Amino acid sequence: MTNNHKTESEKIKILRLWNNVAIIAGGFSLIVAVLLILNFLQLNRHDPVETEMITSLVERLKPDPSNDLLRNEIRAVDLLARKAYFTNQWQIRTGGYFLLVGIAIMIIAFQMIMTNEKKNPLANLEGSENLLLSQKKARNMVGIIGGIVFVSAIISAALSHQKLQKFYLAPAVAENVEIIQIDPGPERAPESQTVVSQGEVAGAIDTISTESKNAKQTEDKPANTETQAVKPDIKPVKVEQGTKDPAGQIVELENPQYFPTFRGPGGNGIAYQKNIPVSWNGETGENVLWKVPIPLPGFNSPITWGEKLFLSGADESKREVYCIDINTGNFLWAADAANIPGSPAQGPEVAGYTGHAAPSLATDGSGVFAIFSNGDIIGLDFDGNRLWARNLGVPENHYGYSSSLIVFENKVIVQWDNRKIQQVLALNVKTGETIWSTDRDVKISWASPVVVNTGSRWEIILAADPCVDAYDPNTGEQLWRVDCIYGEVGPSIAYADGMVFALNEYANLAAIKLGDKPEVLWEDTEYLSDVPSPVATDEYLIVATSYGVVVCYDTKTGTKYWEQEFDNSIYASPVICDGKVYLIDKQGIMYIFEPGKDFNLIGEPNLGEKMVCTPAFTDGRIYLRGYDNLYCIGEK
Residue 149: pLDDT band by 50, 70, 90 thresholds? Predict the structure, then answer.
């Protein structure tokens, strides 16, 4: 009798425990649900992004584009607006997760209650049947009311997300002022459309300043716009090894025609071409050798090897890789990236400013490799024949995939930092098979890998919240890690003379001194970037911000030598070539200046087409990808 009483007492305790869990989970879920509903109601009454204020300020700036006070006020409001947008997005996303977890725990608790009630000793007592029936009815009523509230909360969260997007992309009211969409993520390029958006106030200033200078843009008349494929007679370029570059990096492959990946050899923003032009004009056609339209959209930057240039383009249903003759602009071939094993029937939803072909390609002189938003990766030979293709899984993040590829020896290096999987991979260039893969304890990143030789070894260096770390390119072994960065990381690192530089907007700029135990040598928080990657020499670090300010630091001390504010916003990364920095803004104006203690502007030629892609170089030429066209610039 005592044992039975004890068992019954334990059952009663369990029942009470699950009742308490249900009450707590239900109360928690109810609070979260009410907050989500109230947030939606608040959004209907108030614009958290202050779009009207920004638009009003832009209108005030239009007749007086030289008003620095008003310009600074716009930038300040823009900064607050972006913070408000991302804070609201985070609150909605986090609240939704909390609500789902709370509901799941409550459902489990109810299930346990019903299971234990069947064995409840109180059920044998007189009148308990009516009591249990009343409790069941009460729970059903609470469940119905709670269900209505929870469904309303989920709908409110979805509508709040859409509402924020409308605020973020509110229609422009400034007549004849073209204001284009911002990229709120790293290497995330916008579609061409007329909207005001958070952080894109600089785009408005771009256009206003351009109008004030009467620089009306017209379509270029290229020397050659043919796109018919021709049979090329091109052999792989032989390369020299062991040459030291201006950043103190040992160059594995150096050739005047060699620009094999995003930001050049190793992805470090240093190029080795000579006789690069410093003047051209898209309106008059000065030094525009040719211009060709690109069939499918994409925000990847061009790469070159020998006399071939490579790009990719994609939309929701089609993905292609293009090979173009650098001398004529003729399309040598276009390869369809279709029928890939494991490829999803439907691609992921991506932001328009990222698209389906954001990552830049990579080549080793015999093969070219491309990756797309749905995780499809393909290897092709230089005649466009497929070597291999596979799907790495659909990358899950809230902007779209944008990390560019890079090749080291016989390996294609992939930075695969997504919501569910964070890895760095090495794939065989001939077969596409995984040579090694290393899991990473990081968050989503849109940055790209950089490969450097520190003098003692080769390293793959990556940036992602919360760290900058390095891996052995032959084995995938982690070599070192420094926790020094956070947030939604978009810029890649820069390397020079044993120093690594990493930065991210709303975080910091960290200068890491390599050695037996890498450590942060200095930090700065004044000027940061969310899109452009920095570039460095032994002495000078060049940082370009997306809102148009360029800064030069001493690499060893962090001393700021100068800062220069340009009229237009910047998303392309600076590249040092022929002793000069080449940096193009979103309006197509190239700023050419020397890396040094004083700012010395050499030229600012205007191409006349909006662009966000980083330029590629061959000897005597520059290749620029605009929203619609690819340009070749060189002395005529």
Answer: low
Contact 30, 149 (CB under 8 A): yes
* Mean pLDDT value across residues 134-147: 63
Nearest CA to 206 among 241, 237, 239, 180? 180
Which two structure tokens, joined as six digits, stand for 433? 């098979």
Query: Within 13 A of 489's CA, how many CA atoms are on the CB side?
Result: 27
How far are the Cα atoms of 401, 443, 532 from residue 446, in angstroms, in the given order?
Answer: 7, 10, 12
Q: Judge contact between 545 and 552, C-beta under 8 A.
A: no
User: How many angstroms separate the CA atoms of 284 and 82, rounded?
Assistant: 38
What CA–CA distance (Å, rounded) separates 571 from 533? 9
- Residue 553 vs residues 225, 484, 632: alpha-carbon distances, Å: 42, 19, 32
Before 395, cis peptide (omega within 30)? Answer: no
pTM for the whole structure: 0.68
DSSP three-state, residue 72: helix
Residue 111 has pLDDT above 60, yes or no: yes
Give the number of residues written for the chain: 636
Q: What is the pLDDT of residues 334-392, one digit of tens each?
A: 999 999 999 998 888 887 778 999 999 999 999 999 999 999 999 999 999 999 999 99
Kindly list the domain boundaries of the chain, sorted by start residue: 2-176+199-212, 243-634
Confidence of residue 5 (pLDDT cuts 50, 70, 90): low
Q: What is the DSSP string of 48-70?
A: TT-HHHHHHHHHHHTT-TT-HHH
Ramachandran sector of residue 87 (left: φ over 0; alpha: ψ -120 to 50; beta: rest):
alpha
CATH class for the region spanning 243-634 = mainly beta
What one-character DSSP code corresponds to residue 125? S
- Give the pairing of strands 362-363 and 367-371: antiparallel
CB 83 within 8 A of CB 184: no
Q: Give the 3-state secondary structure of 458-510.
A: EEEEEEECCEEEEECCCCCCEEEEEECCCCCECCCCEEECCEEEEECCCCCEE
Q: What is the spatial distance between Cα 146 and Cα 102, in angstroms, rounded to a whole number?
A: 12
